[in-house]
């Protein structure tokens, strides 16, 4: 302790004593308050403050300060300071102009820790002056100390905005004698105001308006109704309001009920800063809500699973009936759930195990979250641990090149297209450059690519969820050693008639650019999950499973060939229809920006132009400007490279099978089962598969048809499903929804704004759970497929041998990638390709 003897006997009762709370840990408050000559940083009433020479901050030091709003200079000397009791004492040694009769003031400030985040300040003084002088300066001194405590609190808790409280009246106070003479005290974050004491008892009208600074996220606005009595006033009743129930700029008038039937009429208005719509929950409230919502989500999934097993099975019939979605057109589905298609207890228990793995991993979520500073984006890492591996993307998701890499090696490799003419480039981007080259030069060099999220353009944002239908322009960046990678030229989020803002990586608005990338990922997520994954994989293949069951006898070679590729598809689709895209209470309604109805509508829109053969692997690539020979010059498109290995192997497999079963084209045409199967699938009242041949008249057409179906049921779905974990597990990388749009204006946006837009803990937990569940490995893969083992062992063995070769080739490539420090691509390894759409 530093100490110097003081002239004042401070054991006597203080002249002025003020107590107040600062919402910060005592160490932080003391550290700020402790330096004797440095109060200007947190208390803005001072014009100047400096220590007298030698300007050493120790006991005996003298500080002199002046004020902004009054012409007065005061000098004070530090007389003691104790870091263990958090006490500081000083005395006034000079005041100009002086107050006659005032001989001195000794002041003590003491701090006491109330909790880990709250400090109580006691600020008192002893005035050496005649009592008349003491009583004159007592009130302004007390107010000054209260202001000091408020200033400290404000420093640690910057204002979140304003709360304007208008007290209209009190009604129906109990009759008594003498009559009640009420007034009201209003308190928020340690600051309080009170109405004047009225002259007319019983029913009092005030119409007083008070303005508060909102300093904490606690949001508790308190009212105390007092009775002004002779002697000391007495408390009639208290009531408090939670400001989390109010929205920004939306005043609400309420009758607040007190005990004994009385009520006060108040109007509350909030003017929050930082573009927020409502007072954010405190960290504790947020954690509580999130954990509860997360367990509700998990329980919801479990309940649905149970319900389906217990209630929704229909009896097995020789022919399964087709059913239609309420939205048209859509892929056909089976009516009810045939008993044979219900997911087995083994399958359901594996899915349940996945949910449990997630739940167990999240048991320590709260503790892990506490390790991150509030509002930190790194806090999304808290979801991983335990059974869930930590994705590398937690570190790299912000990199532009990683963002672009995902277009060709990530969860959705189906969007990117080669740019072959300047007309393909959105107008607002045509003057841009990359690596010193204009757009035309990049096109000529086959270095320009576009991602056009046009499928989202017809839809509207609703329920505080925001998405765009962006354009993303990327180029092939030349690196040293002849290496290349994709990188961003620009992003355009909107499709206005007039001006459309463009976001580029080198702009002086880095946060706007980052937010634009996040919106692109959110848009990509909508199209990937609804259109490609649900619509053009899961739902599209269902009618083929139905027609195969209905028209092909079990012992038919084509039935044997195809059946493993429909295993569990109807069961899993049924589950999705009861949960993810149910007509009532669908999980995707609140968790996806697009919402369920619009998501299903996007599938329907896609189905309008769907064509069976155009959905084949090579045709999908060709439509976007890519081929097997890589004439487009794009390197690292492993979905394309590995996909061709698999596609061709499936082609050999189906061709061998068809040739073994039929001697020539005429024999195919003469097979009534195959013809009935094709007819059923093409029939608009049954399979209704657009572009499916109603008649199969050649070996080649049958082989190509089977190749297309097997690709769709195996590799296509696997490539766009199993990378769910890690890509969507990290909500930062692919948010399913965003709570904010890009604000207008030229200024950059804050990191806080982006954080507020990202999925909250409930939605982030949902993404994590869903991605973990959907990435559950299949027990049947293309590497262990053997449906023809007994009938045609040579075909089965040839396919297995080809799968083995492909596996070795991809493993060797991946080894090289790893050695070069690059991410590998394992999703089209035969052993990782699920034979059917079963998750
Ligand atoms: Fe799936």
Structure commentary:
With 839 residues, the chain is an alpha+beta fold. The protein has three domains: 2-156, 2-Layer Sandwich (Alpha-D-Glucose-1,6-Bisphosphate, Chain A, domain 4); 161-272, Immunoglobulin-like (Sandwich), CATH 2.60.40; 284-312 and 341-413 and 428-832, Lipoxygenase-1, Domain 5 (Lipoxygenase-1, domain 5). It has 22 helices and 25 strands. The strands form six sheets. Strands 1, 2, 3, 4, 5, 6, 7 and 8 form an eight-stranded antiparallel β-sheet that branches. Strands 19-22-23-24-25 form a five-stranded antiparallel β-sheet. α9 (510-551) crosses α13 and α9 crosses α17. Residues 533, 538, 717, 721, 774, 837, 839 line the site of fe (ii) ion.
User: Number of domains in the coordinates?
Assistant: 3
How much beta, percentage-wise? Answer: 15-25%
* CATH homology-level superfamily of the largest domain: Lipoxygenase-1, Domain 5
Strands, total number = 25
Oligomer: single chain
Query: Would you identify the regions where 5 or more consecutive residues have pLDDT less than 50?
Result: none
Ligands: fe (ii) ion
CA-based gyration radius? 36 Å
Q: Determine the structural class based on helices, strands and strand pairing.
A: alpha+beta
Number of helices: 22
- Average pLDDT for all residues: 91
The CATH class of the largest domain, by name, is: Mainly Alpha
Identify the CATH architecture of the largest domain: Up-down Bundle
Give the proportion of residues in helices: 25-40%
> Shape from CA axes?
elongated
Briefly note the CATH topology name of the largest domain. Answer: Lipoxygenase-1, domain 5
Largest sheet: 8 strands, antiparallel
What's the end-to-end separation, in Å?
68 Å
